Amino acid sequence: VSGEGLLRRPKECDAWFGDGEFSPANSHLAARKYKTRHIQQQVSMIGHYVDFFPRTGEAEGSRESRSVVELGAGKGHLGTMWVKSMGFSHLLLVDNQCFSLKADREISHEEGMKVERFQCDLKDFAMDKVKSLADRRVCVVGKHLCGGATDMALQICKTSRESSGVALQSLCIASCCHHKCTWRAFVAKEVFEDLGLTAQDFQLISWMTGWACCGHDHVKKDEAKDDEAAEERKRKMFGNLKMPERIKAGLACKRLLDLCRIAWLRQNGFLSTQFVKYCPRIMTGENMLLLAK
After folding, report:
1. Model confidence over 65-102: pLDDT tens digits?
2. Angle (CA) 287 166 257, round 5°
3. Lowest mean pLDDT among 60-69, 163-172, 234-243, 281-290
4. What DSSP string describes the chain?
5. How confident is the model at residue 216 (pLDDT cuts 50, 70, 90)?
6. According to the model, what pLDDT value does residue 132 have?
7. What is the per-residue pLDDT for 104?
8. In sequence order, what are the residues at sequence separation of 6 or more whose Cβ sits closer than 8 angstroms to the Cβ of residue 220?
9. Do residues 171 and 140 make contact, with C-beta atoms less than 8 angstroms apart?
10. 234 Cβ partners below 8 Å, 6+ apart?
11. 225-241 residue pLDDT tens
12. What does residue 70 show for φ and ψ, rounded to 5 degrees?
C-alpha cells in the first residue's frame, strides 16, 4: 500500500494547526514542543480512530464523561492531543519513568480538565482499580509501545473489559519494536500455535522483524576492514537474500505478530477490530495501528 491517502486530519484536530499546514507559531501552545512529523502521526491516529469509532448521534455533553488512558505515555503528547481534540475531560497517563517538560502540564490547569499520572510498570497497572475511571467511558491509546509493552497493554484492556469497574469502549495502539517481543509476554500464543508454529519459531520470527527497518545492512567500520570483508559478513548472516527481500520478509513477520494479536482481541470480546496503516513508511517504519471496540 502506498503512503498516499494514509494520513488523516480530522476537523477535531484543527486547533492544533495554524492556517493550513502545521505551523508551530500558530498552533496550540502545547503543540509547539512537537516535531512536525510527530504531530502529523498523532493527528492521523486520531483521524483513523474517528473513522473507526464515529460519534454520530452522540448526546450533548457526553464527551465530558469520557476518559483517555495513555499507556507508555512518556511526556504525554498523544494523550494531551487526544483529550483536547476530542473534548474529553479526563486524561490518565501511565509510564514507568518520570519526565520533565511534560505536555500534559499545558492542560492540567484548564477548567473542567482532570489529569492524572501513574508511575508504574504496565505489568503492575490495573485499570479496574483506578477509582477515577469508575462510571466513565474509557479509550486506551498508546503510540509505539515497544515489543512486549504492546502485549501488556492488550492484556490490561482484556482484564478491564472483563471487570465491571471500567467501561472500556475502545483501544487505539501503534505497535513497534517487534524484535523486542518475548514469548512470555506475547498474548496471542494460542493463535500463533494454531498456525503450527512454536515458541522457537517465535524467537526466530521476532528476530527477523528487525529486517523491516534497515540498518542491519550496514557494517560498523571497526568490523569491516574492507568492502570484501563486509560483503562476506553479510553473506554469512543473510545468505543470498538481498536487502529488499530482507525488508519484505521482516515486514511480513511484523504483520504476522500483529495479526495474531488482532485475532486474540476478537477471541476476547473485541468484536470489531481493524489493522491499518496510519502514515507512510517514509515518516516512520512503525506505521501500523491496532484498533478495537
Report:
1. 899 999 999 989 999 999 988 989 999 999 998 888 78
2. 30
3. 234-243
4. --STTT----GGGGGGS-SSS--TTTS-GGGGGS-HHHHHHHHHHHHHHHHHS--TTPPTTGGGGEEEEEET-TT-HHHHHHHHHHT-SEEEEEESS--SS-GGGGTTTSTT-EEEEEES-GGG--GGG-GGGTTSEEEEEEEEEETHHHHHHHHHHHHHHHSSS-EEEEEEEEEE-GGG--TTT-TTHHHHHHTT--HHHHHHHHHHGGGGSS-TTPPPGGG-SSHHHHHHHHHHHHTT--HHHHHHHHHHHHHHHHHHHHHHHHHTT--SEEEEE-S-TTT-S--EEEEE-
5. very low
6. 93
7. 83
8. none
9. yes
10. 217, 219
11. 555 665 666 666 667 77
12. -100, 120
The residue to which cell 467511558 is assigned:
137
Cα–Cα dist 125/139, whole Å: 16
Classify 146 in phi/psi space as left (phi over 0), alpha (psi -120 to 50) or beta: beta
Amino acid in position 96: N
Q: What is the DSSP string of 137-205?
A: EEEEEEEEEETHHHHHHHHHHHHHHHSSS-EEEEEEEEEE-GGG--TTT-TTHHHHHHTT--HHHHHHH
Q: Quick: pLDDT tens for 10-69.
A: 888 887 765 555 555 544 544 555 667 788 899 999 999 999 988 655 554 566 789 999
- Output the pLDDT for position 266: 96
Q: Is the pLDDT of residue 158 over 50?
A: yes
